[in-house]
Amino acid sequence: MGSAKTIDAENEQALSPRQKKLILIGILVLIFISVGLSVAVIEVKKSKSKTLQFINPTMENFIKTKTVSGRVVQSHTETIYVNATKGAINEIFVKDGDTVSKGQNLFSYEDSTLKAEIGQAEANKKLAETSVTQKNEQITSLEQEMNEVDSSTPSSKDDANRAANISSVQSLQIELNKANDDLRVAELNVEKYTLEVEGLKAQQESLTIKSNTDGIVHNLNLNIGQGFQTSDNQQVAIMQIASNEPFQIEGKLTEEEKAKIKSGQPISVTSNVVPNKKWKGEILEVSDYPTYKSSPSNTNVKGKDSQKESIPYYSFKASLDSQKNLYPGYDTTLNVVVQSKQLLAVPETSIKGSGKSTYVYVLKKGKIEKQKVKTGPKSGKWVAILKGLKEKDKVGKNPSWTVRPGTKIDLK
User: Fold this and answer.
1) Which of 278, 281, 287 is nearest to 265 (CA)?
2) Which end of the chain is least crowded, N or C, by CB within 10 Å?
3) pTM above the 0.85 mark?
4) Are residues 201 and 150 in the same domain?
5) Are residues 306 and 378 part of one domain?
6) How many whole angstroms separate alpha carbon 387 and alpha carbon 390?
């Protein structure tokens, strides 16, 4: 027994490292062959269990998109400044964050002198109106008196009385003419003071600043209060009104992007802040006038080449069909549809090979044939066929690796 163990030990020691390595490699090869045969058997079983289907190529819509960045903004924000010509601030009627409607009072300026001026103008107007009433009454009285004198004038036989009546009528006519002149002056004064009152009231009304749109008060300047006044050369913002209209997206385009992106193109919008959510919209406008941004200079190079270069950017605006879960300031990614085409297509499962050696299996005269094709863009499960197929062709939808050209097929 002891001698047998000694012999085994000697045999084990007799195996060189190279022999041990060859034995290990042989074992690994056998394992890989076994796995490969098992996979092949499974694939053959799968291919036998699947029925080869034939379909006609179909026209599908393929779109080409350009991805750009943008930021959600209010559709319109109005900045309101303090007007030095209107005097000092009297009262502010809103707070930061308040929702306001169009025509709502925001703040007012002081109007101490205007009140007195309006009062005086209204008093002058009333006096002029009284004068008009008095002159109208005087004219009516004079006209009535003239009619009475004229009706009492005797016949031509009583020359003395007739002359006296004519003299009276002439005197009354002079008074009447003067009364008519005074009436016209009084009427002009009424018109003058009416316009003066209206102008002063309009000036007074202009001292109360109203909102031009429905929106929300932002950036209310807390340093401005009652009595605040600016000089003519100062421009001080008192608040902003952000419109309640649907949000928009603003961003900038490079020269290359501007060449492809135009107004009216559809967009699909996503935001990292709101995962798994998409919004639709379209490009509203792209500016033709660039803004410039300086590129970083190369600090390792001296001379003219080290000067900063100005890179042009073109601003754009886009509208949204919905703004649910979006808020101003959110960064977004826009996929802009720059091209949309109808192309002949087959399912991706029909395509075999790769690169320039792509092909499909077609059915011609009852036999399977290998047809070389030129593929184009992909859209979902569809692949565009640029060359090699027609709409009437019968194409294998799900060919397996066991399919062989020349195989007869009876579609019935």
Assistant:
1) 281
2) C
3) no
4) yes
5) no
6) 9
